[in-house]
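Intended use. Records such as the TROVE domain-containing protein entry shown here are meant for training and evaluating sequence-to-structure methods. They are not intended to support clinical decisions.
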Amino acid sequence: MARFNARVTKVWATSPVRSTGRALRTHQGGTGAERDPRSELFLLAVANFVSQQTFSETGDNRDNRFTTLVRRLAVEDPQWTADHLLGWLRGAGNMRTASIVGAAEYVKARLDASATAGPTNRQVIDSVLRRADEPGELLGYWTSQYGRNVPKPVKRGIADAVARLYNGKSLLKYDTASKGYRFGDILNLVHASPDPGKPWQGSLFQYALDRRHNPDTAEPPASNRTLTAHRALMAVPVSERRAVITAPDGSARLAEAGMTWEALAGWLQGPMDAAAWEAVIPSMGAMALIRNLRNFDGAGVSDEVAAQVAAEISDPEVVAKSRQFPFRYLAAYQHAPSLRWSYALERALGHSLANVPALSGRTLILVDRSGSMWARLSDRSELNRADAAAIFGTAVAMRAAGADLVQFGTTNSPVKFRTGESVLKVLERFGDLGGTNTTEAVRKHYNKHDRVLIVTDEQAAYSHHGDPAEQVPAHIPVYTWNLAGYRAGHAPSGTANRHTFGGLSDAAFRMVPLLERGRDADWPWN
């Protein structure tokens, strides 16, 4: 009996997003595949900007689906939901709103169910609050949904975060009159105590309370250089303020006082001209620089300063530290009017895609350019899913040993490219192709490729030939990147050689080589 000394048959690994076997309909009428709750929640979380409308689903419906799934899994699978999904979303996933809403709903569900197993509610609240404005965001969400009677675990988790996050600079940046919950309100509500390891924090907390309740007499603690420098700047007469920013030490004074670019115009009580921008640019972060390239051009910022900005935003270490999604650089490229930013943004985009693997063999890459893909990524973004998908598809194609890049909708066509060519220039060759005939695109262009990659929202139209993955031999891997998080997938996943991943990040594409080496491409936090 040959139990051990036998010829080994290759066993393909599986992806974490799995189908239940139950058939659904896509929003375009095609045959879809239902996913298990963890898979559905993961895909929705990475694609969902909370309260954002998509082409085929209202913001309210998406939010309800998200909160229902979180609340269910908070009770059924708290370890996975809290330690893994929510922790990853706010950390490596860099998705603030989804993680904050998810943590609030996690705690509410567990309080309602009197559940005690798994991470504590206090720990979960604290874990998703990473920036000093986020305690107020979480309180704002909780009170809008469940009233002002905030449970103790929520208060204690917020209090823990406050002790970590509040300092002089964060007070100046985020404790503004536009906020529903000021720092002082939060300190009163959650009874936060200063961190014992930060002796200066007690006086800071008192100042935050005074700013809120007695703003005319509030005095910053003398020990806090940022707050005292800011007070000194505010005391400068309006008629003398422009002279401050044009002085040799103007940039240094603004930085020392924690003056943000958002606050500078109000302080000057005048326009943000070239001198104002050039004074504050040295203290601006990478994302703030990228967001303001058009403003720099409009104000007439000098070529010398522009060159410094370009060098900063395209520095590989700065790109890595900023953790911005690649489509942010595409949005900046599309909306900055001057060519002096083009090369820097192309380099920055390339750095943000540094981990896209170089795939061996022949790869068919299909990019969805149907009508539903032209929905914006969020209400605050001008970028759409179609262009985000095209950027990633092109990046993978250009790094592959051999690739056919195809755009599809109602019709389909190849997209020409050259290795080493500008990714942003290749994007100009993509069009708007109407409906979503994914199956026909696969049938037409699959030709003994070693793998198929489809970047899409999965809302495929019906085809009598079957789902897109059925058009490819069973031993050939088919990888789907879902950009929208709709409930129904365009094909089953989680079985041999049929894999679905959520969102678009270079980390997701690293799963392909792992799968093809016979390893499970588990959740991104494993």
